[in-house]
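Interim report, section 4.2 (structural modelling).
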Amino acid sequence: MKNFLFIFRGPAYEDLNLTPEESQAAMQKWYDWIGELSAKDRYVGGEPLHKEGKMVQGSKPVVTDGPFAEGKELLGGYFIVKAESLEEAAQLAKGYPDFSINGSVEVREIMKIPMQS
Amino acid sequence: MSSGAEQPQQLVDHLFRHEAGKMIAVLTRVFGISNLELVEDTVQETFLKALQVWRYGQLPDNPSAWLMRVARNRTIDLIRRQQKLANLSEELAHRLQSSTENAVDQFFLDTEIADSQLRMIFTCCHPALNPEDQVALTLKTVSGFGVQEIARALLSTETAIQKRLYRAREFIKSESIRFEIPVGHELSGRLDVVYTVLYLLFNEGYNSLKADELIRHDLCAEAMRLCKLLTEHRQAADPSAFALLSLMCFQASRFESRIGEDNTIILLQKQDRNKWDHELIRMGYYYLNLSSTGDQLSVYHIESAIAAEHCLAPNFESTNWSALLQLYDYLLQRKPSPVVRLNRSIVVAQLEGVHAAIDLILDIPGIRLLLEQHYIYPAVLGDLYARAGNCNEGRRLLQMAWHLTSSLAEKRLLQDKLEALCQSTATE
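Predicted structure of the assembly:
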């Protein structure tokens, strides 16, 4: 089994103007997905990211404020998920609940590098 | 990193809605009723924060406390910003800060939350607001419904609901309505208005066959939740509140059995009584008992006793009609409305026959107009005529009722009656 990083780029929920009931329904979809992944022993963990950040770049590094991607492509958080292959991982990512509101998942295998000589 | 949720996590049903109501009430206590918009925005931000943080894997041990904590911090933050604008010395600002935190924390105590919610109920049900604005504002502010959900529940449009909410909020601001629980002799009058609004809310959910099942259910549950909130409060727990709650329990026990597949209406005599929710009936009796303290006998007491009488009978035939008639006599004294007379006549039909009932209905003041305006009158009267064997008059009235109702379920029921009516006379 390998570990994969699911990077979620999604819409800013604040633009959706959800009612309390809709917010709860949106939340429940995520829990259902996590529950599904956990039942298959695939979910390792996940964390949200703060919206605020800094971008440092340039040959004479310049620090600017985030967010980093334009507009709605906000990087909100990530999961670490176990899978047999990249194909299986991508398959699992199809359960992501926010496709319908223009969210996307980037699936990347976390490299294991043997350090012992 | 949060790890390995063993079991799928679940939020309690309607948790966010209920928490929204609590937070709005508490924050209104802090910022004042004229700042409802700021309050609602703050609550919205709190849910966004939850949504941003929780969805990657971990539900806090106590979601409701977590939400309250975020709302509390946000509140302190907002006040701090205001104080900054006031250009105070650092020392004074610091002192004010700690006393502000203390004061705000008081508002977030459980007993104070309940108190604030009750203030909110009284404010939304202010007698100077018109009933439809009371209902919309209560659903929005006390119950945490969204505008679209209110529109669905009240069979209205979002624009219309927005207008009502705007009008109600402006009224509260311009009239400087106080955010408080009325005291002394004012309390009982104001409570009556609250009961009326809650009963309206309940009936809106119970009777409206046009709204979808889910939202109807939510409305009834919400009316019951708020009524329960009243009964749990030391100032508002008056016997009528218990009576109203017991009435709602009895009614709600038949929620499932009175509607068949394809949204058809199943009349009381044909309902499968095993499908009645016996837990709700038990609760109905429980609250009815609690309502019998003091010397108050409200219309809710009588209506609940009537509902209890139906629940007591194992089948339609063994209904105690004379007990019901007596209860309707009491009700008529307290609330001499045409619809009470109409319902009483149905009981009379069981005891003295359909002709006596028909006479009673024809004696209702203003019956001509009522027959032309509200489908229920021609529907009941037409049914009685049919039972009396007067096929022509029965058909005329049932058809009239058919044209008056816009509910498909009611139309179907009337259609069935119309068909059965002419068959039975044909075989006679």
